[in-house]
Write a structure and sequence with these properties.
CATH topology: tt1808, chain A
Radius of gyration: 19 Å
Order of helices and strands: HEEHEEEEEEHHEEEEEHHH
Shape: globular
Helix content: 25-40%
Largest sheet: 6 strands, mixed
Distance between the termini: 57 Å
Strand order of the largest sheet: 3-5-8-9-10-11
Number of strands: 13
Number of domains: 1
């Protein structure tokens, strides 16, 4: 009689130093685990999330991004997707915007359903995670080519919106009306003060003005033409 010896994978633990492949094996085996990230080769596991310090602002962020996506079919939004950035980084950002690959997007959706490569925009809600989000995670996103990175610091009530220029992140500042304008997604406008005060009516009013702008219309038409050309070329 042959005795089969099986080796149970060890569980993920905060602070583990792993390769991305080993991280994925352990994460997949832990079916009850909802969120874990590999950042610069180190495992970070989420603490229980408080309503006012994470869940509610996260919802407001997703509403804002979702309304924008509804205006432009070639842009997709995801909530906490696993993103395979590189061999040392596999984050689960709170929100992403990606341009689909047929329209010239920088990332792809793999056969097993994950994002591979850099989303055009990543957004994080930062309470206790602020040090990570503005440290190692920011460096990983910058190095991987994430074009815009939003960090909403809840305790400080501050929106950091970074744009990648010449290999480094610079801060996008509000205009005279207090509105921040995305440089990658024309029409994605944010009233940072209003979202901090939970005034979603004002947030969506400003966003709607952005969506109605000529720059957004031109961007939407450009992506549609790229997608049409890509579809015709593949036939």
């Amino acid at each position: 009689m042959t005795t089969l010896i099986t080796h149970q994978l060890p569980p993920l633990e905060n602070g583990d130093r792993l390769t991305r492949s080993e991280f994925e094996r352990r994460y997949t085996a832990m079916t009850d685990l909802k969120k874990a990230e590999l950042i610069e080769g180190v495992v970070y596991m989420a603490s229980p999330l408080r309503f006012r310090l994470h869940a509610k602002p996260h919802g407001h962020l997703i509403i804002w991004l979702g309304v924008y996506v509804a205006s432009i079919p070639q842009v997709e939004m995801g909530i906490e997707p696993t993103v395979r950035l590189d061999t040392d980084n596999e984050p689960q950002p709170d929100g992403v915007l990606i341009i689909n690959s047929q329209s010239g997007g920088c990332s792809i959706i793999t056969e097993d359903g994950y994002i591979e490569g850099a989303p055009e925009l990543v957004a994080e809600i930062a309470a206790s995670s602020a040090t990570i989000d503005l440290g190692d995670k920011k460096r990983a996103y910058r190095r991987s080519g994430v074009q815009e990175y939003i960090v909403w610091q809840i305790f400080e009530q501050k929106i950091n919106w970074f744009q990648l220029q010449d290999g480094d992140y610079i801060s996008l500042l509000p205009d005279e009306q207090g509105i921040i304008h995305s440089q990658v997604f024309p029409g994605l406008w944010l009233d940072a003060s209003a979202i901090g005060q939970e005034d979603m009516g004002a947030v969506l009013s400003v966003l709607q003005a952005g969506i109605s702008s000529p720059a957004h219309l031109a961007f939407s038409q450009m992506l549609a033409e790229r997608q049409h050309h890509s579809n015709n070329s593949s036939q």
